[in-house]
């Protein structure tokens, strides 16, 4: 296990990775972390600062200067302000005398050179000479390389009584099967189940579980990144997020120290999930502007493979865009002009352009084969809808889609059906009316398209849905799903079916009456607003659960458009 952790540490980058792990590790070791990496502002050489005792030594202040990978000559003093020696000089000359908190002014200080790999021999003499020159009775130096960090991670995150050998074996199995993502994810899901089976009434136990989920996901992600296959990490990040929320949500209204630590650790899981999602998309986005490029990359044995994979990518791209929208609105409230905030805004805008290009250059996205692909379509439409300049793109896409579906029904081709398994889709369709009625007896797809059409005045799209209903789908039960009192219990871990359905939605009615009918339940029921992810303003968790478990997206997300408000208000 130590070798696995060592490889993971060596692959971590300095910013947003190694410096995100270290505060949790120090906290788990019993130290008080009083300074963490922040957005903006100078740190004067200190990336992380903590106070306490390690290995029963006297209490002292630990100031960490973090570098990624192996530490070599180019990292020591090559002329960059980010080099190690200038950072150590800043800590000695500026941070300790000017920025160390008052309560720690008279405490001994240890400057920790932290790096994920090894210190190369070419720099060891420089470091040793520096330490001997400036070491005093109250100032010491230490090296925290990959070996030392891996020992502490194994001791405090993965120690035997908290992560038994069986769990370690499951993690190793998941890592060994990265090139078979479904199998790797299956093993990792078992690990998630075990790590999230803690007593949620015990705050310390919950905090440890959240931190373990975070570190194990980091390990999986680093190995997937090294293997250039992120599929297992992507699926695992969604499930880790959902299970972590299920055990941490009860602490988001509390203000004690442990509860705040749980909140911070869960936010770290959100940020890691966003990072993994962005890394996955970076493999795809450079090619979305080329006609059929993504479709061809699927290397299909049939058109079904292309269809299923393209709609899956569509949903992932839209969901990651929605997570960025959520993240941007949170940072914007703090500092709208911050560099990081603007970078997120630019990335979010890039995702919208990429979504449009993905649809335009892969026309199979006009023809859903499965009714449950309404979930991916809903995510993409919602992402478009949040941007006024994208409403025309949404209109064109839905217009082409309903026209294609009409043609597929007319020619008895691969019209949307409620089949689920791959082998059933291979035999679809069959040329009998009985078969057609059986595989189209219910639908969540057409009501959601009709909802967007009615909300944004896409009259031609709404009329086409009415024609589809009257000509081909009179027997079909158009349905819309709503959460109920059991949804909070089952949404995140999906222990059982939940919610209720409005059946036989009347798309034959005028648009205003149709909207009144379907939104009436939203206004009369409080179950959606009582979901913990909504109460604590982390609404993309619900969307993640819907995509991950193939569950309909609550209509409540669209109610703000009818009231002429914005999702930011949630």
Report on this structure.
This protein is α/β, with parallel strands linked by helices and 570 residues long. It has three domains: 9-156, Restriction Endonuclease; 160-283; 284-569, no CATH class. Helices cover 58% and strands 7% of the residues. The strands form three sheets. It has a five-stranded mixed sheet with strand order 1-2-3-4-5, sandwiched between helices. A two-stranded parallel sheet has the order 6-7. Strands 8-9 form a two-stranded antiparallel ribbon. The longest helix is centred in the middle third of the chain and has 32 residues, at 303-334. It is elongated.
Main sheet?
Answer: 5 strands, mixed
Number of domains: 3
DSSP helix fraction: 55-70%
Query: How much beta, percentage-wise?
Result: 5-15%
Q: Number of DSSP helices?
A: 24
Overall average residue pLDDT: 91
Strand order of the largest sheet: 1-2-3-4-5
So what's the overall shape?
Answer: elongated
Q: Compute the gyration radius: what is it?
A: 27 Å
List low-pLDDT spans.
564-570
Distance between the termini: 43 Å
Report the structural category. Answer: alpha/beta
| Total E-strand runs | 9
Fold topology:
Elements: H1 2-11, H2 14-28, E1 32-35, E2 48-52, E3 60-67, H3 84-99, E4 109-115, H4 121-134, E5 139-144, H5 146-156, H6 165-176, H7 181-195, H8 203-227, H9 231-248, H10 257-281, H11 293-297, H12 303-334, H13 339-361, H14 374-385, H15 391-410, H16 422-426, H17 433-439, E6 442-443, H18 445-456, H19 459-471, E7 477-478, E8 480-482, H20 487-490, E9 500-502, H21 511-524, H22 532-535, H23 540-549, H24 556-562
Parallel strand pairs: 3-4, 4-5, 6-7
Antiparallel strand pairs: 1-2, 2-3, 8-9
Helix pairs in contact: 1-5, 1-8, 6-7, 7-9, 8-9, 8-10, 9-10, 9-23, 10-12, 12-13, 12-14, 12-23, 14-18, 15-19, 18-19
């Amino acid at each position: 296990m130590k070798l696995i952790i060592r490889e993971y540490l060596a692959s971590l980058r300095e910013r947003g990775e190694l410096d995100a792990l270290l505060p949790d590790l120090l906290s788990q070791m019993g130290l008080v972390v009083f300074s963490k990496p922040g957005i903006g502002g100078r740190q004067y050489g200190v990336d992380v600062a903590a106070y306490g005792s390690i290995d029963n030594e006297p209490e002292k202040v630990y100031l960490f200067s973090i570098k990624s990978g192996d530490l070599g000559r180019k990292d020591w003093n090559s002329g960059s302000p980010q080099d190690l020696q200038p950072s150590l000089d800043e800590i000695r000359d500026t941070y300790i005398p000017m920025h160390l908190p008052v309560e720690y002014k008279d405490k001994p200080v240890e400057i920790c050179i932290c790096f994920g790999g090894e210190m190369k021999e070419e720099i060891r003499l420089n470091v040793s000479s520096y330490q001997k020159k400036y070491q005093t009775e109250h100032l010491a130096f230490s090296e925290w390389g990959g070996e030392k960090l891996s020992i502490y991670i194994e001791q405090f995150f993965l120690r035997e009584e908290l992560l038994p050998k069986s769990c370690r074996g499951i993690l190793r199995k998941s890592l060994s099967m990265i090139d078979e993502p479904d199998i790797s994810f299956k093993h990792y899901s078992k690990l998630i189940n075990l790590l999230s089976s803690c007593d949620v009434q015990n705050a310390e136990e919950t905090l440890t579980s959240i931190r373990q989920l975070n570190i194990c996901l980091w390990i999986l992600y680093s190995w997937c990144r090294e293997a250039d296959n992120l599929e297992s990490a992507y699926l695992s990040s969604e499930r880790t997020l959902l299970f972590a929320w299920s055990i941490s949500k009860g602490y988001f209204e509390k203000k004690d120290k442990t509860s705040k630590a749980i909140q911070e650790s869960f936010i770290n899981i959100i940020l890691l999930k966003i990072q993994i999602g962005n890394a996955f998309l970076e493999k795809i986005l450079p090619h979305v502007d080329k006609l059929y490029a993504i479709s061809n990359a699927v290397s299909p044995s049939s058109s079904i493979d292309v269809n299923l994979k393209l709609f899956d990518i569509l949903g992932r791209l839209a969901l990651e865009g929605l997570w960025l929208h959520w993240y941007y609105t949170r940072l914007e409230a703090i500092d709208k002009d911050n560099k990081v905030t603007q970078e997120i805004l630019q990335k979010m805008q890039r995702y919208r352009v990429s979504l449009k290009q993905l649809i335009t250059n892969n026309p199979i996205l006009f023809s859903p084969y499965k009714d449950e692909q309404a979930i991916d379509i809903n995510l993409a439409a919602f992402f478009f809808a949040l941007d006024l300049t994208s409403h025309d793109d949404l209109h064109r896409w839905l217009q082409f889609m309903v026209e294609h579906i009409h043609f597929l029904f007319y020619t008895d081709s691969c019209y949307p059906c409620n089949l689920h398994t791959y082998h059933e889709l291979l035999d679809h369709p069959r040329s009998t009316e009985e078969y057609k009625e059986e595989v189209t007896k219910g639908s969540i797809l057409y009501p959601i398209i009709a909802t967007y059409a009615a909300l944004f005045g896409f009259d031609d799209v709404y009329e086409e849905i009415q024609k589809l209903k009257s000509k081909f789908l009179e027997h079909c039960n158009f349905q819309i799903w709503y959460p109920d009192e059991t949804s909070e219990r089952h949404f995140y871990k999906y222990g059982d079916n939940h919610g209720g359905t409005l059946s036989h939605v009347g798309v034959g009615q005028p648009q205003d009456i149709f909207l009144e009918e379907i939104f009436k339940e939203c206004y009369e029921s409080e179950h959606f607003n009582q979901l913990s992810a909504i109460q604590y303003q982390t609404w993309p968790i619900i969307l993640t659960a819907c995509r991950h478990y193939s569950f309909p997206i609550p209509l409540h997300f669209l109610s703000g458009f009818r009231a002429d408000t914005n999702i930011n208000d949630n």
